[in-house]
Design a protein that fits this description.
This protein is of the alpha/beta class. The protein contains 10 helices and 14 strands. Helix 1 (12-23) links the parallel strand 1 and strand 2 (27-32). The two termini are 35 Å apart. Bound molecules: UDP-4-deoxy-4-formamido-beta-L-arabinopyranose. UDP-4-deoxy-4-formamido-beta-L-arabinopyranose binds at residues 76, 78, 116, 118, 169, 185-186, 189, 201-203, 214, 216, 254, 277, 280.
Length: 314
Amino acid sequence: MSRWLLTGGAGYIGSHVARDLLASGREVVVLDDLSTGIRERVPVDAELVVASVLDTDAVRRALDGVSGVVHLAAKKAVGESVEQPLLYYRENVGGMTSLLQAMDDVGTACMVYSSSAAVYGEPAWSPISEDSPLQPLSPYGETKVIGEWMVRDVAVARPLSWVSLRYFNVAGAGAINLGDPSVNNLIPMVFRALDRGESPQIFGTDYPTLDGSCIRDYIHVSDLSAAHVAAADLVEREVVGVALNVGTGVGASVIEVMDAVSEVVGRDVGAVAVGRRAGDPPELVAQVMRAQETLGWSARRSLTEMVSSAYAAR
Ligand code: WQD
């Protein structure tokens, strides 16, 4: 049985990955500073170390007996990163430096890294291939690109097998107690509006898309989590170094998401069109062939399952 370190394992995505790593037969050590993570979300079968990835000594100790690391711990709000770029460089780039240093010190040779479609910025083409230029539009996206470069560079200098997973729009919940507690993204924002008796807003209906609203590639957090286990299997099995899109390969417009919510809640949510939000590309959809071929993984869950599970877990 192998033992894995999961940074950020008390968070929204991490709490799913922790369960799936355990279910794959691995021992799991979660390292989380609980700044946004929730202690109760760490499965009882996992060990919890309450520490920041910036604490290299604590990471080094947590790596004892560990064969690989899934690194999720990071700041992830695009708008906040524009306001506080140094916070993002300190936490995300500093966190990666500290983690890779600790891994180097103790000789940990496997890494699965949480990257983002934000590395592409506003791509010229959609669906987006992994070979598209990396042109992030925010400090958040920049720190994700730098993290990918750091892992790649370290792997040139010493033995390290790695996969970077570029997440598209993550949604849904694998259980009613594992919903996304932040209200940064479309689906949680729609539910918050409904809870307050307000109308959900569609940010722009004049985009060059079929219905005029923006198109995104929404992926169920349980499918995303399964991709981490497949990536952990791969880096343990062979020496690789690859960045993979993690999406469904199918886009949904904001209006289609509103329709899915209306279907789930059993009434028209009465979404209203408002102006565009600055910086939103019209369409971001993943090319998913490389993940399918490399990991033998693909997303299975529908938009309706994302919306209904998010609704049940809100
Ligand atoms: C989705 C679509 C909005 C709210 C961001 C980050 C990305 C990643 C995921 C990090 C857009 C529209 C939204 C609302 C709306 N983050 N919208 N009404 O912007 O695609 O991606 O989150 O790890 O890096 O950039 O996601 O959920 O904010 O928006 O119409 O009330 O919904 O304009 O088209 P986005 P989102």
